[in-house]
Amino acid sequence: MTRFITSVAALTEDASRDDLEVTLASVMFELAGPVELRLWRTVEQPEGSGDLRLRLRAHLKAGLPVALDANATDFEDLPRLSEHPDFCACLGGKHHLKLPPSAEGICTELFAVLTDRAAVGILEMRSLKPLGAYQLRLVQGLLKIYRN
Questions:
Q1: Percentage of the chain surpassing pLDDT 70?
Q2: What is this structure's pTM?
Q3: 73 and 103 in contact (C-beta within 8 Å)?
Q4: How far apart are CA 128 and CA 120, in angstroms?
Q5: Which residues contact 54 (CB under 8 A, 6 or more apart)?
Q6: What is the DSSP letter of 60?
Q7: Which residues of 73-108 are buried (b: 16+ CB within 10 A; e: fewer)?
Q8: Which of 33, 54, 57, 56 is nearest to 125 (CA)?
């Protein structure tokens, strides 16, 4: 429990949204235990154009350091949200989406990342088995902290 409280404290002390996203991904990776985690942010240029793209904010994999996208990728080179129907379904419904296991048996679960105004991203977690009730509550609770 102490580790959880320390992790949440670290999550909430960051002032910028960018730092908060990276901390959020790191805490969830540490506490929920997936084999891989990606945090995607939706971006749109120009604003209101409807051309939504995905920017990878954090990528964590067992045994590897955190990989970050420092916004260096040109907008035109980012993948289109529309090319990822599972992501669209998750964001559109603003909810958790459990995908069928891959041929290798990897379970992928998607979570809409919300602010008080809109769905702004996707949390993609890959695990050897579906997340348990405790892990789901943990992830959903941390996403509520992010939302605030």
A1: 82
A2: 0.84
A3: no
A4: 27
A5: 40, 41, 42, 43, 78, 79, 80, 81, 84, 87, 122
A6: E
A7: eeeeebeebeebeebeebbeeeebbeeeeeeeeebb
A8: 33
